[in-house]
Amino acid sequence: MSGASETQRAFGEPLGDGDLQKAWPGVAEKRLRRRRRRARQRAAGGVAGGVALLAALAVATVQVLPEDTGAGPLTLADGSAFTDLNADAERALPLSDGSRLTLAPGTRGEVVVNDGRRVMLVLEEGRAHFDVVPSGPRAWGMDAGSARVEVLGTAFEVALTPERATRVSVERGHVLVVGPSLPGGSAHLHGGDAVLVE
Length: 198
What we know:
Radius of gyration: 20 Å
Order of helices and strands: HHHEEEEEEEEEE
Number of helices: 3
Shape: globular
Structural class: alpha+beta
């Protein structure tokens, strides 16, 4: 039997371009799940550091916010590193660019990208309220459950339900939510709008 026939017998007929385009969303979803699983594993290793940081923040008081030029990573207003979204009790995170995050008790997540151009977060569980300075120097984004939220200068909240659905509600401004259960795969939300992504 020839090599080509053995390959066809083992793997079936070759896929065409249309078949590959149909399969690609499943591949992308598996990659996203794998990235989130690795993020959860890294976050579990950093719980002790998060508890120490939480204790330090509970003692510290926030002074005047320093001016942020966007030249480097975003920091907490006191100059310490902005690395996680973990909270055992309600936690306020004033940031160096004037933005502010408030985490509900039991929230878990991490900062996966933080440079002068982008801030990308992963919310693994819980609820976080964001008040992002409009027209800032950085693009903000977040993965939460099966939703991706792209921030366009706004105040909004993202919450993961116990059923692992993601609720996004906007106080003011504008966000783009991307998720498989949304009509057309995405939704633009403005002040007063909310969406549930399953």
